[in-house]
Amino acid sequence: MKYEAGSIVEGRVTRVMDFGAFVELPGGESGLVHISEIAHEFVKNVRDFLNEGDIVEVFVLGRDEKGRLDLSIKELLEKPVDPPKPRRLPRQAPEFEHKLKSFMRGSGGPSDGGKKRGRGRKKR
């Protein structure tokens, strides 16, 4: 069976890999749902979304240069509404920045070159 870009087909997940999942379509042809095409959210682990044997509906994106099917699940999912972006806080007054740098210098923080101060037990 020949699948064209834009087709929506139901298939079975045959293999789950770190980079995506292979889906077998009716007629025996398989395609790849890349990890970036599984969900709109960030997918760290494919197995959190898909398991071998799952029946999924996929959108045919097309074929790669080697003739393999590229599939997507997220194309069939409703796009989430973007949450409002947080407002940026106003920049602190220069006096505050100066006081903070001064404090950090005296506390043995990163601007102190990584040297430790204070009493410690001497090595013998």
Mean pLDDT across residues: 84
Order of helices and strands: EEEEEH
DSSP helical segment count: 1
**Helical residue percent?**
10-25%
Question: Within the largest sheet, what's the order of strands?
Answer: 1-2-3-5-4
Given as residue ranges, the uncertain stretches (5+ residues, pLDDT < 50) are: none
Distance between the termini: 79 Å
Could you give the count of β-strands? 5
Q: What gross morphology would you assign?
A: elongated
Largest sheet: 5 strands, mixed, barrel
Estimated radius of gyration: 27 Å
Structure classification? mainly beta
- Proportion of β residues? 25-35%
Overview of the structural elements:
The protein has 124 residues and is mostly beta strands. The chain is 10% helix and 27% strand. The protein contains 1 helix and 5 strands, in the order E-E-E-E-E-H. The protein has one helix at 94-106; strands at residues 8-17, 20-24, 30-34, 55-63, 69-72. A 5-stranded mixed barrel has the order 1-2-3-5-4. It is elongated. The model has no long low-confidence stretch (mean pLDDT 84).
